[in-house]
Amino acid sequence: MAISKKELDKRINNFKEALRHSGIKLTHQRLEIFREVAKVIDHPAAETIFQRIRKRLPTVSLDTVYRTLWLANDLGLITTLRSSRQRTRFDANLSRHYHFICSKCGLAMDFHSDELDELTLSETLKDIGLPETTHLEVKGMCLKCAKNKKPREETSYDREQKVSGNRQI
Amino acid sequence: MAISKKELDKRINNFKEALRHSGIKLTHQRLEIFREVAKVIDHPAAETIFQRIRKRLPTVSLDTVYRTLWLANDLGLITTLRSSRQRTRFDANLSRHYHFICSKCGLAMDFHSDELDELTLSETLKDIGLPETTHLEVKGMCLKCAKNKKPREETSYDREQKVSGNRQI
DNA sequence: CTATTTGCAAATAATTTGCAGTGCG
DNA sequence: CGCACTGCAAATTATTTGCAAATAG
Q: Which residue is closest, via its CA, to the C1' of D22?
């Protein structure tokens, strides 16, 4: 569940520095809330963090937890996993495929990749668990939006700019 | 946006057959709702499907759309993408990593993979868009749950058994 | 015919927001 | 010592559910 003290200190210092740099106040609540996400490896939900810090900070409110987590997200210090901000989308394509989601218009498109199809993770995951399903999602700007010919539609994905597992591949 | 007529017919026949096989009635609403997800490639949300079929079926209600989509999901005929049924989870690990989520206890764990790190999708995606971030999530049972030593905690993931991009890797 | 299914409206769950008091820089 | 921040309660959004009327097989 926990991270090394060294890594935790680094994360907390980054947080303090980022707040200072942005002229945002470092409150007791913010520090404790950030510390709680930063110190664990289990990707807690806001509610879970709220429960965990109540022992130390009996008066914090759940909305402050949300505000602080999104603040840290906006500062690039944490990322989100399975954000509930979007509506569920449905897919009738049952063949093996992956998704590309446009960060501007929200359009989700299927794509195929032999390289991905050929990958085997069971060895990598042998100490973690038994894989059943895999879901891969690439986010970026679709060609139409890149050409600026298509207006924004559907739910916006703004808040999720920084996705977990972040990287360009 | 649209799928070939042949593929659409196949999907619709599968749907009819699955309903018949399960003794579930084929209503006008169910058929039109399913046809609407089945015929497009853009992974619409329930609300979007609702808006689209209102022209043909002015009296359908949004809850019937949801009921039908989850029914099709339960029958294994469609999958979901970014289901909103779960709470947002936060991750303070900023290094390149992927997620394993236990389908039983919901625990999310990070893992690393050189094979994935080395993958390049920009060629594959050249006709789709410009990749910015990638998010990969493997679902399966974690070792603790497999040994049956850990009770269920947090939100359950039941409804999401069938994830898009389905496959074991 | 009659058990399912539908549409409506009201209920939930997660998250967000307005506002007045509070405290950090 | 002022303006950003907090806690509270009320609002919002996506989704679900109870129930009486409608309908597929």
A: B27
Q: Locate the domains of chain B by residue range.
A: 1-95, 97-162
To the nearest 10°, the Cα dihedral for A83, A85, A86, A87? 110
Residue type, A22: S
B14, two tokens: 């599968």
Kindly state the helix (H) or strand (E) to which residue B131 belongs, with its residue range. Answer: strand B129-142
d(CA B107, CA A43): 8
Establish whether the CB of B65 is closer than 7 Å to any nucleic acid atom in strand D: no
A46-54 and A62-74 are packed helices; what angle lies between their axes, rounded to 10 degrees?
120
A-interface mutation test, from B134, B149, B153, B157, most A Cβ less than 10 A away: B134
Helix/strand/coil for A33: helix
B25 touches strand D (CB under 7 A): yes
- Model pLDDT for residues A99-153, shown as the tens digit of each residue: 998 888 878 889 999 988 888 888 899 999 999 888 999 989 999 888 875 444 4
CA-CA distance, A132 to A72, in Å (whole number)? 32
Class of the CATH-defined domain B97-162: alpha beta
Shortest distance, CA A92 to any CA of chain B (angstroms): 4
CATH code of the region B1-95: 1.10.10.10
* Chain B residues closer than 8 Å to A90 by CB: 37, 43-46, 49, 69, 72-73, 78-81
Q: What is the pTM of this model?
A: 0.83
